[in-house]
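Report of the visiting student (M.T.), summer placement. My assignment was to run the structure pipeline on a short list of targets and document each run. The first record concerns Protease HtpX homolog.
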Amino acid sequence: MTGFLFFIIALGWLFGYLLDSQGILILAVIFSVLMSIGSYWYSDKIVLALTRAKPVEKKDNPELYRLVENLCITAGLPLPKIYIIEQAQPNAFATGRDKNHAVVAVTRGLLEKLEKVELEGVIAHELSHIGNKDMLLQTVVVVLVGVVAILSNFFLRASFFGGGRRRGSRDSGGSILVILGIVAAILAPIAATLIQLAISRKREFLADASGALLTRYPEGLASALEKISADQNPLRAANDATAHLFIASPFRGRQLQSWLTKLFSTHPPVEERIQALRGMNV
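After the run finished, the structure tokens were exported:
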């Protein structure tokens, strides 16, 4: 996160220098934060609407409620709202702006296809996301990615229409700086997205470890991940905007495990997560 902030400050300084306007970074940050406040405040409602999740009461599924309640007591967390997605693919996610406004959603397939210890491992993973404040972290990261996109877009537009201290400069040094600025403006959003995805993958590893410590049984989550990744049912309620929330990628099909695929993935490879869990000593 510190590196991300330094990256944005350096980018803002470069663009501001080339356009002779050091207020660009400040304006971009303010604009991105204001745009993100609404989505952060209503993130749970937006995600639940997109995934068509339905609330479930204790009388509807007392076993699920007891499992979540017991894990919340162990983790020292308030009981989140519980939702069910009527889909055959086993999967789950957590959302909400903080631990007092959190939501845990599970698919019907998860409830039907996992053993109790496996389901407990999945719920512990999602509660760990809440306890680790991952929803807040992801919101901050989205804001930072938005700042980079706005800065890059503004610089490219200003460069094409002319302006700034480099407009009148015809020397080779000035031309090189402008070219470097344009290259940076094109590559910066890609770099910011890669940082965002890397943070997302790291938080999945952390939630796996925290969840395993919560249940004291890493094998439960490891076995659950095996079943989830092996299931070929599509999850039609998922899309690119919500895929990173799920415990495992909701997209099914043949996926190449090249270094490039891993670089642009929202989740670490399941094999690596299972290996890490089975290597834990709790």
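The chain is about 65% helix and 5% strand. The chain has two domains: 2-41+138-188, 43-134+199-278. I thank the supervising group for their guidance throughout the placement.
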